[in-house]
């Protein structure tokens, strides 16, 4: 299994509070991604990174920000959590943007009450 | 915008049957297609990766084919077992550094 660790694995937070999810990899892969998975929508890309300090928006980036200060860590921040951000969040990594496989973490279940 | 559709959404079959899961995508300009398995409450496990220049890939009882020009892929599971019960996801990778576009999955139940 690819060395991807997401933390926390479960979190309940209140509306309006900031939340940060962490993805840590031990594979030294260049590309990292954050997805959310919701019933009826499948997995959708939030943000991605193609190197240290290099990030860009995905399909559903509103309300989210990211940071990557080291190759191994990719942080997803909800500045002010809303109930619509209740979801399961997955981190993924890939050595190459186009050719090689993507590997996924175990997910973080976030509930905003 | 790329769209990925998986048919059927759910499937329940007796153990031992051979079965086919379908995936279609609207934009044929893809770099690769990846099939994943997801067990309830778990992450995604990569099953097979097909590059755009390839026609098929095999791993054990699994065989995935790709017809890029028609925008279709199939995942063939031979001699199904109860342990194959899971949700199977198809995802395509287009150009650029952004991520995969996923279908909504096929929820598969293999009856003992």
How does the SSE layout of this entry go?
The complex is a heterodimer of chains A (113) and B (112).
Chain A: E1 4-7, E2 10-13, E3 19-25, E4 31-38, E5 42-51, E6 54-57, E7 64-70, E8 73-78, E9 87-94, E10 102-104, E11 108-112
Parallel strand pairs in A: 2-11
Antiparallel strand pairs in A: 1-3, 3-8, 4-5, 4-9, 5-6, 7-8, 9-10, 9-11
Chain B: E1 4-7, E2 10-14, E3 19-25, E4 32-38, E5 44-51, E6 56-59, E7 62-67, E8 72-77, E9 86-93, E10 100-102, E11 106-111
Parallel strand pairs in B: 2-11
Antiparallel strand pairs in B: 1-3, 3-8, 4-5, 4-9, 6-7, 7-8, 9-10, 9-11
User: If you compute it from the alpha carbons, what radius of gyration of chain B comes out, rounded to the nearest whole angstrom?
Assistant: 13 Å
Low-confidence stretches of chain B: none
Q: Beta-strand level of the residues of chain A, as a percent range?
A: over 45%
Largest sheet composition of chain A = 7 strands, mixed
Order of helices and strands of chain B: EEEEEEEEEEE
Q: What's the rounded overall pLDDT mean of chain A?
A: 94
Q: Count of DSSP E strands of chain A?
A: 11
Q: Quote the distance from N terminus to C terminus of chain A.
A: 34 Å
Describe the structure.
The complex is a heterodimer of chains A (113) and B (112). Chain A has 113 residues and is mainly beta. In chain A, 0% of the residues lie in helices and 58% in strands. Chain A contains no helices and eleven strands. Chain A has strands spanning 4-7, 10-13, 19-25, 31-38, 42-51, 54-57, 64-70, 73-78, 87-94, 102-104, 108-112. In chain A, the strands form two sheets. In chain A, strands 2, 4, 5, 6, 9, 10 and 11 form a seven-stranded mixed sheet that branches. Chain A has a four-stranded antiparallel sheet with strand order 1-3-8-7, with no helix packed on it. In chain A, 35% of the residues are buried. Chain B has strands spanning 4-7, 10-14, 19-25, 32-38, 44-51, 56-59, 62-67, 72-77, 86-93, 100-102, 106-111. In chain B, strands 2, 4, 5, 9, 10 and 11 form a six-stranded mixed sheet that branches. In chain B, strand 6 (56-59) and strand 7 (62-67) form a beta hairpin. Classes of the chains: A mainly beta (113), B mainly beta (112). Chain A binds chain B through residues 31, 33, 35, 40-45, 48, 50, 56, 58, 90, 92, 97-107, and chain B through 31-32, 34, 36, 42-46, 49, 51, 89, 91, 93, 95-105.
């Amino acid at each position: 299994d690819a060395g991807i660790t997401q933390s926390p694995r479960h979190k309940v937070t209140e509306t309006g509070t900031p939340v940060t999810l962490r993805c840590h990899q031990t594979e030294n892969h260049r590309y990292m991604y954050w997805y959310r998975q919701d019933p009826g929508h499948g997995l959708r890309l939030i943000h991605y990174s193609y190197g240290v300090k290099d990030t860009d928006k995905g399909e559903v980036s509103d309300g989210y920000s990211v940071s990557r200060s080291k190759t191994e860590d990719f942080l997803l921040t909800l500045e002010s959590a809303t109930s619509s951000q209740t979801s399961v969040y997955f981190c993924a990594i890939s050595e190459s943007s186009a050719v090689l496989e993507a590997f996924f973490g175990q997910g973080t279940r976030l509930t905003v009450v | 915008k790329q769209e990925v559709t998986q048919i059927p959404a759910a499937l329940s079959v007796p153990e031992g049957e051979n079965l086919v899961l379908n995936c279609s995508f609207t934009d044929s300009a893809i770099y690769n297609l990846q099939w994943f398995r997801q067990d309830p409450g778990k992450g995604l496990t990569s099953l097979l990766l097909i590059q755009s220049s390839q026609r098929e890939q095999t791993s054990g009882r699994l065989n995935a084919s790709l017809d890029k020009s028609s925008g279709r892929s199939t995942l063939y599971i031979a001699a199904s077992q109860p342990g194959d019960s899971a949700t199977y996801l198809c995802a395509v990778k287009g150009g650029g550094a952004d991520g995969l576009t996923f279908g909504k999955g096929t929820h598969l139940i293999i009856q003992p």
